[in-house]
Each structure stands twice: as structure tokens, then as C-alpha cells.
Write a structure and sequence with these properties.
The chain has 139 residues and is α+β, with helices and mostly antiparallel strands. It has a single domain, classed as Roll (Nuclear Transport Factor 2, Chain: A), CATH 3.10.450.100. The protein is built from five helices and four strands. It has a four-stranded antiparallel β-sheet. A hairpin with a 7-residue loop joins strand 2 and strand 3. The longest helix has 23 residues. The termini are far apart.
Length: 139
């Protein structure tokens, strides 16, 4: 085998190995998913809804603009108090479901009852697009 053929084979192997998902790539994606989920919830807790809109999937952003999204979230009767990533389960490399523990305060509208604080586990869908994770709102 001459040097030219050896370089060609080495190049082809390098290119092909880049196509397969290595375990470290999967770990990086999982870590990035958790990071993106936490970042989005930090924005929601801070009521920075315009910035949180950036975490929506490209498809969701094509349906709702940032102003409408922010307005809808600002009018809710629920106040998010805390959110904590629990885990994720991926049905493929590009689609994952995430569980989050969320503490909310619900405005009852009844002065004698006050507001009610409760915690629940919520599920969110996230997709991998354009080399990043994006939240897919439920219809």
C-alpha cells in the first residue's frame, strides 16, 4: 500500500467515525439538555419571558412571536416559585422527555383563602435542532 492510499483510508475512517454517535457525544448532549432546561426555567422564574421564548423549538417560534408568548405567560394566575430538573428519557438522539419538579403559587382570587402553594412533577418535550436543545410546548 502506498502512502497516498494510506492517507485516503485514514481520511475515510476519520470521516466515518465522525458520523457515529460516541458515548461522550451522548453524554455531552445529555448535559446540554439539562443545562438548557435549567436555563429556561431560571428565565421563567425571573419572569424574563422574552428571553425564555428563545428556548422554544423553531416550529413553535414560527407559530407564536415573542411578544404574544411573553404576554400570555405574564397573564397567568400561577406564579412559579421553584423548578428542579429530575431526569430525562430520550426516545431517540433528537427527542427527549424531561421531568421537572415545579413549585407554584396559585392565586385563588378569594381574599379569605389566600394563595395556595403546591409542588408537582411536570413533563416537557425537547428536540435537538441546529446543534442545540429546544423546548416543544404542548398544544
Amino acid at each position: 500500500m502506498n502512502v497516498r492510499n494510506a492517507w485516503g483510508i485514514a481520511l475515510a475512517m476519520a470521516l466515518l467515525s465522525g458520523c457515529a454517535s460516541s458515548p461522550s457525544t451522548q453524554v455531552d448532549r445529555a448535559a446540554l439538555l439539562q443545562e438548557r432546561v435549567n436555563e429556561r426555567w431560571e428565565l421563567l422564574l425571573a419572569k424574563e419571558y422574552f428571553d425564555a421564548w428563545e428556548y422554544l423549538s423553531p416550529g413553535a417560534k414560527s407559530v407564536v412571536d415573542a411578544t404574544s408568548y411573553a404576554r400570555r405567560l405574564s397573564l397567568t394566575q400561577v406564579v412559579w416559585k421553584n423548578a428542579r430538573f429530575i431526569d430525562s428519557k430520550c426516545e431517540s438522539e433528537d427527542v427527549c422527555s424531561v421531568r421537572i419538579s415545579i413549585t407554584v403559587e396559585v392565586k385563588t382570587g378569594m381574599p379569605m383563602a389566600g394563595n395556595v402553594e403546591t409542588s408537582q412533577v411536570a413533563s416537557e418535550d425537547w428536540v435537538w435542532a441546529d446543534r442545540n436543545w429546544y423546548y416543544v410546548p404542548k398544544p
